[in-house]
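Good morning,

Attaching, inline, the backbone tokens for the sequence recovery test we're adding to the shared suite. The designed sequence is right after.
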């Protein structure tokens, strides 16, 4: 791959957000250039597990915007894929075909298994830990990868996510105590069905994606850590859920922190933290390490950098 140089765009159509990341690829070196994203909440456009026309239209609207940007800078190397919301809906094939036809952008539907694989490949490039469990809490699914000695032991995609839980169990912007308990019970029930992960225990949970990014930002604010800190004590999640839900009256400082650090995720950050808490308790994790590299980087390392 020596001498191989290109600017490459990766479009990730997720259940919460639609992102386009631009990378400068030079041989084995990958440099992130910029990112554009829209908080679409695609999972909320599902009606009886059918992606509505409004949801399809919204995806096309965002992709047209991305396409115009790519054309201005003559970026022709582009890959696009979609995950849980469009993968699991009953009209997945028809919805994706319409998006491709209208936008001219080929969109690949990646399986939950492949999404977990990309997550792991992307994340391990930025950490030193060789053993643990990786978790990617998305809007409609959660991908888990157990790894030892830097190698995958098992992986699974679970049907639970921050936007999915927010839509099903929360009646207001922030959940109340009863709703938090409902989400905890459901997360435990779904996780219990993952038999391959029943006996796995690990010191560290490797978290990727928006839920962990937002949680880390809130954690650093509460505990006065440097902004660049990427490590959280797992036991702090219980306190953080109390801080940012209606389990107790939210105070001035917490309200400011929430609006400043996660303005786009105010509705979904607590449901995401509830899922993270259930995961850390099940795996008996002591720490959570956030990695900013994930599925998009994993796609590049898998298909574009050999």
């Amino acid at each position: 791959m020596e001498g191989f140089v290109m600017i490459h765009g990766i479009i990730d159509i997720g259940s919460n957000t639609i992102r386009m990341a631009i990378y400068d690829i030079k041989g084995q070196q990958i440099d992130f250039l910029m990112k554009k994203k829209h908080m679409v909440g695609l999972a909320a456009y599902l009606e009886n597990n059918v992606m509505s026309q409004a949801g399809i239209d919204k995806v096309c609207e965002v992709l047209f915007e991305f396409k115009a940007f790519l054309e201005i800078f003559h970026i022709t190397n582009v890959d696009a894929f979609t995950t849980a919301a469009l993968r699991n809906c009953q009209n997945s094939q028809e919805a994706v075909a319409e998006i491709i036809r209208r936008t001219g952008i080929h969109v690949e539907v990646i399986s939950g298994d492949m999404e977990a694989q990309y997550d792991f490949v992307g994340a391990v490039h930025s950490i030193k830990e060789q053993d643990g469990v990786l978790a990617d809490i998305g809007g409609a699914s959660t991908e888990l990868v157990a790894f030892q000695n830097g190698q995958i032991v098992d992986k699974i995609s679970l049907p639970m996510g921050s936007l999915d839980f927010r839509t099903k169990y929360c009646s207001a912007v922030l959940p109340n105590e009863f709703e938090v308990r409902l989400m905890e019970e459901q997360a435990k029930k779904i996780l219990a069905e993952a038999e391959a992960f029943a006996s796995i225990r690990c010191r560290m949970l490797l978290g990727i994606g928006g839920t962990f990014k937002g949680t880390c930002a809130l954690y650093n604010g509460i505990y006065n850590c440097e902004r660049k800190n990427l490590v959280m004590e797992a036991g702090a999640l219980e306190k953080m859920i109390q801080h940012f839900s209606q389990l107790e009256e939210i105070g001035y400082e917490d309200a400011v922190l929430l609006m400043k650090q996660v303005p786009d995720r105010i509705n979904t950050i607590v449901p995401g933290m509830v899922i993270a808490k259930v995961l850390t308790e099940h795996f008996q994790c002591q720490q959570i390490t956030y990695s900013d590299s994930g599925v998009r980087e994993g796609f590049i390392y898998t298909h574009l950098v050999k």
